[in-house]
Design goal:
- With 233 residues, the chain is α/β, with parallel strands linked by helices.
- The longest helix has 21 residues, at 120-140.
- It contains six helices and nine strands, in the order βββαβααβαααββββ.
- The protein has helices spanning 49-63, 86-91, 98-106, 120-140, 145-163, 180-186; strands spanning 6-14, 24-31, 42-44, 68-71, 109-112, 189-194, 200-203, 206-209, 225-230.
- 33% of the residues lie in helices and 21% in strands.
Length: 233
């Protein structure tokens, strides 16, 4: 009933450029109470973790923190594998995906749809955009994701003026926005790593040197667990 009470988000891979460029995926979220196409909508190559995190960061920055997020069971949103690491077995719980961890850290409840039909509102949004937005992209002859994103930014306000409605309850449920640095950290990739003997951690092929502790009683963080944040920038 209230704006900010529930967002629905998803990705739609489609021939948005009608053959003038690559097939793209539109990542976007709408407000369930109003149907507003929320800030953060953008085109990427395919539905992915970074796409969801960017949508989340941008909509929270402008609107606030929603209460719940309704979504499908895509692998970026929910762990669908059956693998347990030794650390997870010892802890008795599995680490969430990067997106689910960001939702948890922001206090947003994740609700998973059991069927495509359950996401009817966001699926209808894709139908509207695959008609109207595709036409806008055709009119300017967009051929790249960057060009498509510029048109999308201009189109969003017109779309909301035409299709967004007033919420049944005028009181909004959006919660206060964290400070910029906190939001950037929460909406980035997060890794738990054990510090090596040479005071470094490894993320894939990248080795990160950790500054030496200022505490004179400790010369290194070797053997301790740390969180590594990889920000969207």
């Amino acid at each position: 009933a209230q704006a900010g009470q529930m967002i629905l988000w998803d990705g739609s891979r489609h021939d948005w450029l009608e053959g003038r460029g690559p097939r793209l995926c539109l990542m976007a979220a709408i407000d369930d109470a109003t149907g507003e196409l929320l800030p953060g909508a953008h085109f990427v190559d395919q539905e992915c973790t970074l796409g969801y995190l960017r949508v989340l960061r941008d909509l929270v920055r402008v609107k606030g923190v929603p209460l719940t997020a309704y979504m499908d069971r895509h692998g970026t949103l929910q762990r669908n594998d059956k693998n347990w690491s030794l650390e997870e077995q010892l802890a008795g719980r599995r680490q969430p995906t990067h997106v689910k961890r960001a939702l948890d850290d922001l206090g947003i409840q994740a609700i998973y749809a059991l069927s495509p039909q359950a996401k009817g509102r966001v699926e209808r949004l894709w139908g509207t955009l695959q008609d109207r937005l595709v036409s806008e992209l055709r009119l300017v002859g967009a051929t790249t994701a960057n060009e498509a994103n510029r048109i999308l930014d201009a189109y969003r306000s017109d779309h909301n003026a035409r299709f967004a409605i007033c919420a049944a309850d005028a009181h909004q449920a959006w919660r206060p926005v964290p400070d910029k640095n906190t939001l950037e950290a929460l909406c980035g990739l997060g890794y738990i790593r054990k510090v090596a003997r040479n005071n470094t951690v490894r993320i894939g092929r990248t080795v990160v040197d950790i500054p030496r502790p200022r505490n004179a009683d400790r010369a290194t963080y070797a053997g301790t667990l740390v969180t590594v944040r990889h920000l969207l920038d």
